[in-house]
Write a structure and sequence with these properties.
Number of strands: 0
Structural class: mainly alpha
Distance between the termini: 36 Å
Oligomer: single chain
Number of domains: 2
Strand content: under 5%
Largest sheet: none
Order of helices and strands: HHHHHH
Number of helices: 6
């Protein structure tokens, strides 16, 4: 039963990662890494597929090896976080408009503290 739940959670995470390819405010790589984690416990076949995938595999390998994020990924995250901060400032009333900026600053600091892949 637990294995089945991990399997389903892996597909949900992979689906969210796929959505993130097209929506700039939804992260892709963290959901793909989560999918790999779930597939490790739920379906070794799908884990192997993810790890061997030419586009999805390298970020997973880098994360598992050293917790690294590529420089390109860091810049993409920074641009997305900046965009969400601007949207928050424009569309949210005070004091809620500060929340996206605070989250973006904290997230961005953590992302840039990770080693480069």
């Amino acid at each position: 039963m637990i294995r089945y739940l991990y399997f389903v959670a892996g597909f949900i995470a992979l689906g969210l990662g796929f959505i993130g390819v097209f929506l700039p405010l939804v992260p892709t790589v963290p959901f793909v890494i989560l999918a790999a984690f779930c597939f490790t416990r739920g379906s070794p076949r799908f884990e192997a597929w993810l790890l061997d995938h030419p586009h999805l595999g390298p970020p997973i390998h880098a994360w598992r090896r050293s917790g690294a994020i590529s420089r390109k990924g860091k810049w993409a995250a920074t641009i997305g976080l900046s965009g969400s901060s601007v949207l928050g400032l424009v569309f949210l009333p005070w004091p809620w408009s500060v929340a996206p900026m605070t989250i973006a600053l904290a997230s961005g600091a953590w992302i840039w503290s990770r080693p480069d892949a």
